[in-house]
Amino acid sequence: MPDTSDALVAALRQALGATAVLTSEAQADEHARYLSDWRQRYHGRARAIARPASTEEVATVVRLCAQHGVTIVPQGGNTGLVGGGVPDASGLQVVLSLSRLNRVLAVDAANLSMTVQAGCTLAQVQDAAAAAGLLFPLSLASEGTCTIGGNLATNAGGTQVLRYGTARELCLGLEVVTAHGEVLDALSSLRKNNTGYALRDLFIGSEGTLGIITAASLRLHPRPKGLCTALVACADMGAAVTLLQAARRDLDAGLTAFEVMEALPLSLVARHLPDAAHPIAPFNADPTSVPPPWLVLMEHTSSVSDTHAAESLQGWLDEVLTTGLAQNAALAHNEHQRRAMWGLRESIPLAEKTEGLMVKHDIGMPTSAVPAFVEEAGRAIAQRWPDARVVCFGHLGDGNLHYNVQPPALARSGPALAIFEGEVNALVFGLVMARGGTLSAEHGIGALRRDELARRADPVALATMKALKQTLDPTGLLNPGRVI
Amino acid sequence: MPDTSDALVAALRQALGATAVLTSEAQADEHARYLSDWRQRYHGRARAIARPASTEEVATVVRLCAQHGVTIVPQGGNTGLVGGGVPDASGLQVVLSLSRLNRVLAVDAANLSMTVQAGCTLAQVQDAAAAAGLLFPLSLASEGTCTIGGNLATNAGGTQVLRYGTARELCLGLEVVTAHGEVLDALSSLRKNNTGYALRDLFIGSEGTLGIITAASLRLHPRPKGLCTALVACADMGAAVTLLQAARRDLDAGLTAFEVMEALPLSLVARHLPDAAHPIAPFNADPTSVPPPWLVLMEHTSSVSDTHAAESLQGWLDEVLTTGLAQNAALAHNEHQRRAMWGLRESIPLAEKTEGLMVKHDIGMPTSAVPAFVEEAGRAIAQRWPDARVVCFGHLGDGNLHYNVQPPALARSGPALAIFEGEVNALVFGLVMARGGTLSAEHGIGALRRDELARRADPVALATMKALKQTLDPTGLLNPGRVI
Fold first, then answer.
1. Per the database record, which ranges form the Phytochrome chromophore attachment site domain (chains A, B) (predicted)?
2. Which of A63, A82, A187, A197 to mutate to test the interface with B (most CBs of B within 10 A)?
3. Are both A230 and A334 inside the same structural domain?
């Protein structure tokens, strides 16, 4: 439909200004970053990339696309991991980038809240909170690039969920442009507001399929006055879960992170990124030594001081070392050591990537179920594919594991890889779902897990989701082919 | 439609057993408590009261009522304050009581979660958590009677929201019987689960108009090891809000409650419930003395011990007394004193009731807006009705005030009262909404605030809510005339 296309592009240019609408012919290079995800797994084409500068302009883009029967892919920082933010291969879709809606609208320190436009990067939001002496605790590897609108559209998780919750729990209100091109104002900064249905929560996590988030009110927290980080070695996952339970009981809200890493990902870091591999004694005593079976990274905050955080965490670690729950432990005694500990954890994805292709899973389950799952899944994979390897690490405090499997040598490309991927997914997801778990804890559904969701979701829940999509976006204008 | 009625009652009796279906003819006395709210403001009649004993029986009741075209009023403990849980006056509706679904299904201490049926009382849920050494922090005056299903259907608040959130933040998953009589299984116990739309959150707070909650997975917390409560006198609301801000900054998650009471409600307690009025020195130094302009009740928990909680709260109070932010303060030194402090706060509603009729408001706004609101609303009411009196108290930590107005002597009944109520509501809600506030912070909409919501809600939000209702309950079977 080239005529329709031209008319739409002309109308978009008239509404937004010529420079706010990119087309592939004119700006091929500029174009590229909107069309592929950053893992380079999804590559699409677009009729145009519209970059509105205000909520009203977003609504105009939606209305114009609706008039022309052209579907829309809303896009924030384009850092998603499930192909939810790039257009399909048809070249018929419009990418609606929120990146120019990038202003912090208000910070209300007394109310511990702030109001921001959707295109603000997460780092920008964190910085604005810090400038007011407060904390916006959402924290992700991609925080310099990802946007708060994308974080909310995907209900992002990260490393502080244990204490502060996911993006959902950090959002007080939203402004949304609907599929009808109307502006829904639910931008309240209230902690309690029982006036009808939770529209805010319906849009959060809907991955741009029900409406386009244009602004948000966010919940801020006091900045902890002290912080201490530690590495703890555990003999097995059962001990790590018991350690978590003890830490929650004894440190309560002071426990802000509880990450876990198995020996294999630590070995991969040692091989590919040796500078990151041994952050602190005793974990650097002998760089050639075998890593512990499981290493926990935990973070403890204090409302008093760094010294208080360190003393209370040291006291607690002395106890768990005495009881044998932990094999070994080390505190970070300064910011350099603290960063080195987090550097170890954060180096795993790059070390993995350097090692080669992995079939990745972002699974979640009750923490009580994790030890038996790790045991059973590991055994089943080893039996079925003796030379496959499991790279397991993640946010144990939330029951969320990144459970990645390196295919056997003969299944690392082509049809063999596709068959392996299908089989290992079936195995992993089967064991996860049998334990009341989820096939996507934090990454979302996007294009990657859509079929899997359709297969495995509760049928009444799935039918309800389809009905909601039909109600809020009856013509299928918004991000078609994603989620459901 | 007596024939239809009989056939439905017969079918319900056959499905549930004769004793599980009450009709007014047979059990008039037993009947009564299902038909009026506990404030005795709403009185209805019912064709039958169905008391299913399982999720499947709930689904059966829904299907039978749908077949007979009879609408359903779901009911938990019937302690709601907005007329959302009692039938209308037609005598044509069926009350569906969840009270027999009253089992705790599972407690998972390692996952800090539990699964319960909807008819469990809140106290029963709290007790089951405590028996596992854990905390379910939702806490309300009616906790011995209200049910967890009702708490979730209304997104209940209470005194611990500041730290632990409302019922919504304490829920991990739901089982719901839909308006089609199907069972929607979203009963997961996961802290992170990004697999499609937030159906759980759509049913939470929908007051039984979108589906019937039959079971829930709940988030548990560690039990604090120490606790200390204090009363603090402030010169004005501005000082109280600054005190709150300082407390959040310095005590962080250790601040678990921050309630406020103005002098007038304290005087009413002194007049009508003198034993409760003066819990502790210096606030009992002279029982005839004038109460402070504003009295704050704050609670501080510690992950260490009671002594630690008391010492750190005392240290903090010494500071705020020195800076002049507080006029006076007292710690509870034992459980008796602690209960006396809470007793003062909890006596206010009864003292109010004894004093006479009040036009009540459950308003919320950003805490930063509260001082100017209190000032402006007080002045406007005094100007318009010189002998009206404002009774103001509530959950300042959440920006939620119970802002009740005693009508002038000439407007305490009949048409004059109705006129006064309309005018004072318009005045109060107008000032609240102008500050980004809400006309119902925690009580919900029910029947009481339905028209007000229709008048004041964002029109796009309201239209969206209506579309959701139409989608999930196309025949209007569930709790018609409530919320929207």
1. 1-179
2. A197
3. yes
Helix axes B370-384, B414-434, angle to 10 degrees: 150
Residue B202 sits in the same domain as residue B213: yes
Q: How far is CA A143 from the centre of its chain?
A: 10
Q: Between β-strands B94-97 and B48-50, what pairing exists: parallel, antiparallel or unpaired?
A: parallel
CA distance B418 to chain A (A): 23
d(CA A114, CA A126): 11
**Closest listed residue to residue A51, CA positions, set A87, A83, A86, A95:** A95
Question: What is the complex's ipTM, to 2 decimals?
Answer: 0.96
Within a domain: B476: no
pLDDT for residue B233 is more than 80 = yes
Q: Which of A82, A123, A116, A71 is nearest to A98 (CA)?
A: A116
Q: Which of A53, A70, A97 is the last residue of a domain?
A: A97
Among candidate residues B54, B81, B97, the one where a domain is terminated: B97
User: A19 to chain B, minimum CA–CA distance in Å?
Assistant: 31
State yes or no: pLDDT of A183 exceeds 50: yes
For residue B414, what are the domain limits?
356-443
Domain count, chain B: 4
Q: How many C-alpha atoms does A297 have within 13 Å on its Cβ side?
A: 25
CA A383 to chain centroid: 32
* Cβ-Cβ contacts under 8 Å, A461 against chain B: 184-186, 196, 199
Q: How many CB atoms lie within 10 A of CB B430?
A: 12
Taking only the tens place, the pLDDT of each residue in B261-308 is: 999 999 999 999 999 988 888 887 566 677 889 999 999 999 999 999
For residue B400, the chain A residues in CB contact (below 8 A) are: 191-192
| Residues B66 and B13 reside in one and the same domain | yes
- Written as six digits, the tokens of B153 are 């259907």
Both tokens of A387, joined, read 């030379």
Q: Looking only at Cα atoms, what is the longest distance across chain A?
A: 76
How far apart are alpha carbons A284 and A280 in whole angstroms?
Answer: 5
Chain B positions touching A185 (Cβ under 8 A) are: 458, 460-461
